Sequence to fold (207 residues):
Amino acid sequence: MDLIGKIFGSVHRVKIMRLFLFNETGIFDIDAITKRSRVSKDIARKEINLLLNIGFLKKKTFQKKVEKKTRSKTKEKVFTKVNTQGWVLDPRFALKKQLKALLIDTDLVAEKEIIKRFKKAGNIKLLILSGIFMKDENRLLDILVVGDKLKIEVLKKEIMILESEIGKELNYAFFETEEFNYRMSMYDKLIRDVTENDALVLVDVVL
Fold:
């Protein structure tokens, strides 16, 4: 990400571009962009304006579901739809194919960086990348983590950071070693989908 960010002049720009390239028909407003890309609204607006000017994005109004404020004493939430301005990838953008090749079809995140991040979450015994990292979106999982005394909140935080950098929500699973071994013995469908298909093993300690 650092190298690509330097090439494009902004890591934040890369995040936002990947968000739209991975979701070609998706319409995102400023709130969705800042949440998914983990950038401030000021930075997001600056990058969006630049991407609008070069024709990468185009404006689009859509209906957004928002919570309606009521004086009701019940805890049930009431929602309504409002017209909201958002942005969508312009399918006519001339360099779309080339940008996808550079930002998506290459390695999304350095392997060493992923290992470093996840090792903060406990005694990692097995770390496997599948799905999107293998350019195969038909897989059930993108990331499988197995270990002992795993810090789930730390793992979830790192997943959120990865999602913001990649531009796409990830499918993942975390298992303690004992549970993983049990699932393996039961020929668990989720585990088999990772272990019996193309995958990238980053950490593999004898379980």
